[in-house]
Amino acid sequence: MRQPKTAQVVIGAQFGDEGKGKITDYYAAAVGTDGVVARFNGGAQAGHTVVTPDGLRHVFSHVGSGAFAGAATFLSRFFVSNPILFLKEWEVLATQGIRPLVYVDPHSPVTTPYEMMINQISERERGTDRHGSCGIGFGETLERNLTPVYALTVGALDDAGALAVKLDAIRRVYAPARLARLGFGEAFARNAGLFLSDAILEHFVADTRCFLARTTVADIQTATHSRRLLFEGAQGLLLDQDRGFFPHVTRSNTGLRNVLALAGDLGLERLEVTYVTRAYLTRHGAGPLPHELPEKPYPGVIDATNVPNAYQGALRFAWLDLDLLSHAIAEDLADAKRWPEVSVNARLAITCLDQLGDEPATYYRDGLRRAASIESFAAAASAGMADVLLGIGADRNSIQVSG
User: Fold this and answer.
1) Under 8 Å CB-to-CB from 95, ≥6 apart: which residues?
2) For 262-286, what is each residue's pLDDT tens digit?
3) Is 48 a catalytic residue?
């Protein structure tokens, strides 16, 4: 009997930072160099930490979190490429002996230095009303690409002369107009030295040359041919642009919508989806956080990745709300009903359970605060899903299957 065309999918079920990198690495290790990790949303603002059993550690941004396991990466048309930050990540991985195979869709939008400037300036100007942005220009890139004359994709990077002309128009015409629309028109004059620096423009053109030299521009059919496919999401369901707490959202669909579109391109028939949450709730950046706590929920909580920064501040913590979790997952799974040709099987992964120590798992259900053993907590959180992945350590070997 012919096996259905299947792909694994890893989706964050909260505000991001759930452990998607660890779960992606877990699945990628099962297929090794036969695998390809497709990034289906977001961009360089992702920070997916992977620790290998022998101690290698990296926070993946552009490159898929299966790279340590030997999987290739595909940056889809829904992924925003940032050549500047891609090259930084490439050099870090090179020091660890990793030179990943990276494919990128020619329709992937490209971030320039000017969106990064606009993003950082506008967040500073907002003061206490910040949106919680990472400051790397992700949303601003998508905004610019809505205007065809200023749009820039990977497929247009090969003509350096035309690229320089477009960048000059972006910095001289688009950038001041965009800051004015945001209500920060005077900020362009205060930062004109940066925007109008020819050295920055020329350096970015050179960066795009290096970016193209280290990637292969290809469509999804070419990039995934004869490979086991794993979709890796960025951010989380509670940051989805259509379902999150606006305006404190990412400019992206963080759940199944983009995956289903790409599955249609490939004629996939089944998706094995893993929704990921920590054993507690976190948020990096401004915006609502139900049941927020003034400090870490458990003494054993350690997070070396989400360090305080100028744009998002420090990592925030809360008790996990299982009603919020189940609602977010149910809403996301409802999207699959519009694609009856693709069947979806869902499971849950709970990470950071080792950080609870000897304490019971504390969570909210039906508006009430509860405490339970890890086993009872996992059963309550899974809400009828077949089984649960339990992450009780830093690397893939610490993941157990329960249920």
Assistant:
1) none
2) 999 999 999 999 999 999 999 988 8
3) yes
Distance CA 131, CA 122 (A): 10
CB 72 within 8 A of CB 218: no
Look up the domain containing 180 and give its range: 113-215
Are residues 59 and 123 part of one domain? no
Give the predicted TM-score (pTM) of the model: 0.94
What are the Cα distances from residue 50, in Å, to 66, 189, 315, 375?
9, 42, 19, 25
Domain count, the chain: 2
Segment holding 232, helix H or strand E:
strand 228-232
Same domain, 96 and 120: no
**Is the separation of the CB atoms in 78 and 141 below 8 Å?**
no
Tell me the C-alpha distance between 228 and 395, whole Å.
22
Pairing of strands 316-318, 292-293: antiparallel
Owner of token pair 């100007």: 125
Q: Can you tell me the distance from the alpha carbon of 220 to that of 316, in angstroms, rounded to the nearest whole number? A: 37
Percent over 90 (pLDDT), the chain:
86
What whole-number distance in Å separates Cα of residue 247 and Cα of residue 255? 18
Q: Name the nearest CA neighbour of 140 among 160, 112, 177, 164.
A: 112
Selecting among 17, 25, 105, 332, the annotated active-site residue is: 17
Give me the pLDDT at residue 284, please. 85
Q: Using the predicted structure, report yes or no on whether residue 245 has a pLDDT greater than 90.
A: no
Sign of CA dihedral 288, 243, 383, 396: negative
Same domain, yes or no: 200 and 170: yes
Separation CA 160–CA 370 (nearest Å): 59
From 12, 311, 282, select the one nearest 133 (Cα to Cα).
311
φ, ψ of residue 295 in degrees (nearest 5): -155, -175
Burial class (CB in 10 A: 0-12, 13-18, 19+), 392: middle
**Interatomic CA distance for residues 249 and 45, integer angstroms:** 13
pLDDT tens string 312-342: 568 999 999 999 999 999 999 999 998 999 9
Which residues lie below 8 Å from residue 49, measured CB to CB, with a gap of 6+?
A: 21, 22, 57, 58, 59, 60, 304, 305
Residues 177 and 259 in one domain: no
Identify the bridge partners of residue 230 per DSSP, sorted by sequence position: 8, 37
135 lies in the same domain as 91: no
